Amino acid sequence: MHALMIVIFGLTGMTFGWFVYSKFIAEKIFQLDPDFVTPAHELRDGVDFLPTNRYVLWGHHFTSVAGAAPIVGPAIAVYWGWVPAVLWVTLGTVFFAGVHDFGAIWASARNKGKSMGALSEDVIGKRTRALFMIVMFLLLLMVNAVFGVVISRLFVETSTAVFPAWAAIVVALIIGQLIHRNFNLTVLSICGVAALYASIYIGSGLPIILPEQILGLTANGSWIIILFAYAAIASVLPVWVLLQPRDFINGLQLFVGLFLLYGAVLLSLPDITAPAFNSMVSENSPSLVPLLFVTIACGAVSGFHGIVSSGTTSKQLDKEPDSRFVGYLGAVGEGTLALVTIIAVTGVGLAATPELWHEIYDQYGSAGAETFVQGGAQIIQNGWGVPLGISTTLLATMVILFAATTMDTGVRLQRYIIQEWGQIYNIPVFSNNLLATFIAVGSCLLLAFGAGGASGSGGLTIWPLFGSTNQILAGLTLLVISVMLIKAGRPARYTLIPMTFVLITSAWAALIKLVEWYQNGDWLLVIIDLIVLVTSVLVTLEAVSVITKYKSESSSPKPTNQL
Description:
Layout: H1 3-29, H2 39-42, H3 54-66, H4 69-77, H5 82-109, H6 116-123, H7 126-157, H8 162-180, H9 185-203, E1 213-214, E2 217-218, H10 219-236, H11 243-268, H12 288-295, H13 303-311, H14 322-346, H15 354-360, H16 369-384, H17 388-424, H18 433-452, H19 459-462, H20 466-487, H21 493-520, H22 523-555
Antiparallel strand pairs: 1-2
Helix pairs in contact: 1-5, 1-14, 3-11, 3-14, 3-17, 4-14, 5-13, 5-14, 5-20, 5-21, 6-7, 6-20, 7-10, 7-17, 7-18, 7-20, 7-22, 8-9, 8-11, 9-11, 9-17, 10-17, 10-18, 11-16, 11-17, 12-21, 13-20, 14-16, 16-17, 17-18, 20-21, 20-22, 21-22
């Protein structure tokens, strides 16, 4: 089986999604209005609300939602075979993720840039807001704490990626200043990408290694402290200073990375050595259904995207029609990354024979981002002749930059939630940017070092909850969008069908894990899992009640004046 067949199938599906399906959703369902005044204009403050070029905003949105998840998820999920992974990534991108991300931006922009938590109060009811925001905060806590671990480990294991990862921040700061002064975007794009890849070349011969122990912390722990100090600063800066240009440059370097990977597939035509369906799974492995649908989240559909879409992206939307380009095309970009990840971890670049592949994938969860870097680097070397050291540094840097931009945005979003809690419960001090950021970062570090010791890996303690929690949030986001559409008298089946599928599979997966954790005595995971499950049920029941009441009122005959 040639990898080219996977490329053709996946990209054909996503092309249909962008040119046909998303256009239908934009025109017939969301009915985008180019004259609608977006929150970026109405509430412009130059810090969070700022009208932004749609290409720059696409870069921010895509790299913020991507992180390492569209790489890690597919890299793990091919354990069940490459066919289920390819089908879920392709169909999930077209009919689930695209509509979810696009819809979350549209819904938030139509409501003054409110987060999905705040919006749920307006659309469904006051009680749902607090419930929604609990799930959102838990998810952000997981993402930020764990991505700190992912980046720190890559810094330690691929020390040649350290220099380009930090050089990218300097490049972004310069680009941000120049964009703010209306320099030509095309010229800046070329110069920014050139500078980034020059730093990758330099970094491949310039490893940066921290001492094994610093003040009692391991190298991993020291990097986590440094990363959260950076994220705290980045999260309070105006979006145009660092967030937008950093994400824009990262988005462009993704294009280069995807070009190299897909081009290498076309040039080398690698065979797939992994099985279409894996019949050699270990006895203690989780079942394909429903775990596939929570293992591959980003790259198919992800609740974290709804937080970003309504948290930062909607506040920077220049024109309402841009929501299709930013949201749906952002999902397509992530789908293409997930698709090429599947090729990288199932082909001869990773393992020359099926036997060698099974040795790497001997159990569920035995592979991840490092597997993608290893397999993808070999494919690039085979196709383009790029030295393995440089291609390894290139892909490791790509993963690190995505994870880091997600941390930037994630900490900012945690700050928003804390500030919203301050408004809800009348705690004025929570409105302070610095205090809210300190609480956000402090909660992540408390989890990282409180549960993980000197290594700072405590986020991994609750990471097993991420898959089901993330997908439950995606279902709840689609639920809010569906209620908005029903109230507007528009067809809601295009969001209700994905919502139903996602809520059922994610709740099913959460119940399976709940039983497992209960039997193992993992009480922290049991408690948090129960909180998420109960919250999702309550929000769903509230929404059903609102829909039923609305339909009953709209179908009742209107009273007439009696003469």
